[in-house]
UniProtKB/TrEMBL annotation:
Residues 1-59 form the HTH lysR-type domain. InterPro entries: LysR_HTH_N, WH-like_DNA-bd_sf, WH_DNA-bd_sf. Keywords: DNA-binding, Transcription, Transcription regulation. One of its GO terms (molecular function) is DNA binding. The keyword Nucleus does not apply. This is DNA-binding transcriptional LysR family regulator. Pfam families: HTH_1 (PF00126). Belongs to the LysR transcriptional regulatory family. The keyword DNA-binding applies. GO terms for cellular component: protein-DNA complex.
Amino acid sequence: MDLVGACRVFVHVGERGSFTLGAAAAQVPQSVASRRIAALEEHFGARLFDRSARRAALTPFGRDMLASAKRLVQLADALEYDAEQAKLRPLGFAVPETCSLRQLAMLDAAARARSTVLDLRPAGPAARAELLRSHEVRAALLAVPPADADWTVPLGVGAATKSGPQPLRLDTLRPGRTRRSLRRLWIQPEDDVPHVRDRLEQLGHRAALAPAQITVAESLIAAVSETLRTDGFLLCSAAQAEELGLCWRPLAGATIARGYRVSAVSGDEAQRLQAGLWEQVARVVGVPMDLEES
């Protein structure tokens, strides 16, 4: 028996002295209201209403039970309200600073359509991990090696001028007799993580580049500025290069990628983001469409 539903009908009928009016207030047919009252009386083992009266008159037992039934209904309504409010409590979610405003807005809209309100907190890789560790957010997109990732974003290089779609060979950046200045490859803070930075530095060493040619920039703005004013390159994804107005090409003979994994305070919150919003998160971090669909 639905005890709360039965008590709700009991309260409405008892307060109005009419099965017809009480059923209407409870928004159920009169036949359903009668069955619920009968089930409640059977459950209690005593009559709630005097069936011999023309009106729905409460018995002494019914008058004694009316106040308790009303409290139960009020508590059930309060519980339902609190549950709805809890679902609307923002879920703090730390995301990369490289995410585009449009894609973040689309992620937020998709989450709200699933009754999840996000409090998006853009931050760098180390800052995201710290925000989660200190419980300042309840979930974060952590930077991890591609083998451990939920989402993988291939990296190449962006440049201010178009030089064809062919992959860039790092050995072509070596200073020569006719070119004394160093052409630099800038690493933005989002990629200042061992599985990206160390791999690129190893490739630079094999290509006989000077150590200063692969440099971690203080900020994404600084990295893009240096790329625009020189003939250097920015390590980035294809989606990010397009957003920044740079010409993108892959790296020859190298597989370098960002990896992201959702980590959360609770498993339910991680599942909501990892499974329920998989496609939206993929677009936020810049997963290429062909990889997203595969």
